[in-house]
Amino acid sequence: MQDVVVKRRVEYPDYDFLSDYQVHSASLVSSTIQSKAMEPSFEDGPVYVPFPTGSGKTIGAIWGITKVVEQYPDKRICFLTPYKNAVDQMYKALVGHLGPERVGMYYSDALFVNKATELQKQVVVLTHQFVSYNKGALDDRDLFVIDEAIYATATVTLKLEDFAHALTWATSTGTLVDEFMQAHQFAVELYGRLNEDDKRRFYPPKELCEREWAETISELDLHNELGQTLANRDAISGVQIFCEALSLGLVFLDRGQSLDSKKYTPTFNAAILGIPNLDKTVILTATGGLIYDACGVIKESSESRDYAAPVCYDQVTLTRLPDPDLGTSYKTWTTETRKADVTNYVDWVLENVREDEVYLSLPLAVIDKCLRGYFGLGGGELSLPMTVTKNGKQIHVSHHQLAIGTNAYKDCPAVVYLWPNHLPKRVALQRHTALDGKPLTDESLLLPNSKKNEGPFAQMKAAQYVDNIVQQIGRGRIRQMDETGRAGRMTAYLLIKPEDYVRLSILMPEATRDQLAGYGDLKKPTGRFERIVECLRAHLGADVAIETVIATTGIESKNISKAVQNNISELSKLGYTFKAGRRGRGNSGVFEWTG
Questions:
Q1: By mean pLDDT, which of 1-5, 16-20, 438-442 is the weakest?
Q2: What tens digit of pLDDT does each residue of 349-381 get?
Q3: What CA–CA distance (Å, rounded) separates 19 from 480?
Q4: Alpha-carbon separation of residue 558 from 82, 576, 581, 589 (angstroms)
Q5: CA dist 353 to 280, 399, 491, Å?
Q6: DSSP letters for 401-453
């Protein structure tokens, strides 16, 4: 490690503000990108590099892209990020290394930027949304570096009337009228056919044969065709994405959860990753690869797997908050009584946190519906983040979906995370389908159609919740890593599901686990795997016989094996492997400690 650090510091003297740990992590990211650019690649297929927030992933991407441009002057590279401010930051950094003639950038409302001119440059920095709305524009790219590929998935949820809107537009403009008519007819027939079968929630179209009309619509250059016809833009582009996904077998219908046949209004769902050169793709992720391990197609880079030094979280405290039990969903908190309950709880939390400065993240809907008066936000559009004073403390108010500048709150000693964003089951199904890339069938939808919360789609949903929590926690001092990779001292106050708390603590094994009592109950995990983890955690450092787990959790042996098989990655991060039992005395199953 020290040899690598010395070499990189000589190469990049302007980055002397990085700790040795950050230099080493950035170097591994850079090496992964350079390896993927080789012909042939050192590793087949797309790879991810899992380093936590603040470890140097973005700087490593800058180094890697710069090296590839120097080594391969003809390679064309694309960097994708979810956020516009991240595009600006990455573009500025790359221009500092390569100059403006080689580096381009674009997003829809970037001022004084000509898209065609920028796309001619060797390196281009874009938001994820560019991919789904500019089909074919990136087909010439030899290498993709993506910040969290899950947000690069083009997902659409359509109603039957959206197909009608698209047909109306096609008819009025004379654009592929026959093809859009066939798309509408297909949707109508599928809608009627599924109305006769009420046994399942999710359905794939039965026929996976080629449909020329779908392929023709998917190839349409909508950016030029739509012009200023904004009224139905979302429906038209949504139908196009649906058609592209349909040709790949990546669509399904969601009946919805209502059992009332009179309320039958299913949605047509589709999702595609849309990266034209997936084999030449490096993904940067901050959550240990949980999301990508759930789909199984995108593998961890050998560079990070074999050479990365783990982060130490012994200065981080994960404090569970009591659940005020305000109802099934924050979307229903509309009465004055419920708004007062929310306000009282938030005020209690902010009064009882020990630190004087807090980064507070909530669902945007909770701030909008319940807390405008409490924070003095008034009416009109919300402008967040904002800083207020409450209970003598400085509170930075934000919401879960907001992108914040990399180091804007790096000195903040506490993050309060309340009520995760609601994630519909179909969203996890969409994103897993896009990342996995395999055609959906009745067999693959067996578990999503059941009430069992297990299988890859359930893993994806759980991973997405943890991902968002980690992203928000990463706004504070936790991102300040010293020479050894020791995260900064910080407290994260968390009102999350107990299952998510268990998974989060797996990612941060040395973190102190605490709780703040006095306002409602602290709920216990109910999921099988989470209960198994709590049992293993009580025996860290030693092998644990399956009989001990059975006695502690009450879970049957066969169900323990099944739960473990569905969560192998998390079990490994905890420091255990599971060895199934065999026939014969003394051959029962055991959780073996690997460290």
A1: 1-5
A2: 999 999 999 999 999 999 999 999 999 988 888
A3: 9
A4: 41, 18, 10, 10
A5: 46, 19, 9
A6: T----TTTTTT-SEEEEESPPP--HHHHHHHHHHHH-PPP-TTTTHHHHSS--
Of 531 and 402, the one with more pLDDT = 531
Q: Is 481 in contact with 51 (CB distance < 8 Å)?
A: no
One-letter amino acid of 465: Y
pLDDT tens per residue, range 46-66: 999 998 888 889 999 999 999
Contact 494, 466 (CB under 8 A): no
pTM of the predicted structure, to 2 decimals? 0.87
Measured CA angle at 247 (ends 243, 253), to 5 deg: 65
C-beta atoms surrounding 139 within 10 Å: 8
Angle at which helix 425-436 crosses helix 456-473, to 10 degrees, equals 100
Q: In what order do the strands lie in the sheet with 357-362?
A: 386-390, 393-399, 357-362, 414-418, 490-495, 316-320, 512-515
Listed in sequence order, the DSSP H helices in 227-301 are: 233-248, 290-295
Is the pLDDT at 175 greater than 70, yes or no?
yes
Q: Which of 475, 495, 479 is nearest to 487 (CA)?
A: 479
Helix, strand, coil percent values for the chain (each to nearest 5): 45, 15, 40
Longest dimension (CA), the chain: 77
The residue count of the chain comes to 595
The confidence band for 342, taking pLDDT boundaries of 50, 70 and 90, is very high
Mean pLDDT, range 190-213, rounded to an integer: 77
List alpha helices for 322-371, DSSP H.
336-352, 364-370
For 401, the token pair is 């979906």
Six-digit token pair at 556? 């049957």
Question: How far is it, in rounded angstroms, from Cα 258 to Cα 254?
Answer: 11
Distance CA 19, CA 21 (A): 5
- Whether the CB-CB separation of 381 and 327 falls below 8 Å is answered with no
Q: Which residue do the tokens 């959780």 mark?
A: 591
Quick one: pLDDT at residue 232?
61
Q: State the DSSP string of 455-492.
A: SHHHHHHHHHHHHHHHHHHTTSGGG---TT-BPPPEEE
User: Tokens 């130490």 correspond to what residue?
Assistant: 312
What mean pLDDT comes out for the span 544-548?
91
Lowest mean pLDDT among 32-36, 449-453, 543-547, 559-563: 449-453
| CA pair distance 443, 437, nearest whole angstrom | 15
479: left (phi over 0), alpha (psi -120 to 50) or beta: alpha
Strands (E), 490-536: 490-495, 512-515
- The single-letter code of the amino acid at 101 is E
Average pLDDT of the chain?
A: 88
3-state SS, residue 81: strand
Task: Give the chain's radius of gyration (CA, Å).
Answer: 25
> String of b and e for 245-258 (b: at least 16 CB within 10 Å)?
bbbbbbbbbbbeee
Examine residue 50 and say whether the peptide bond preceding it is cis (omega within 30 degrees of 0). no
Q: Interior CA angle at 385 toward 387 and 125, to 5°?
A: 145
**Sign of the CA dihedral running 130, 202, 283, 50:** positive
- Assess contact for 49 and 282: CB atoms under 8 A: yes
CA-based nearest residue to 445, from 464, 468, 426 = 426
**503's tokens:** 């998974």
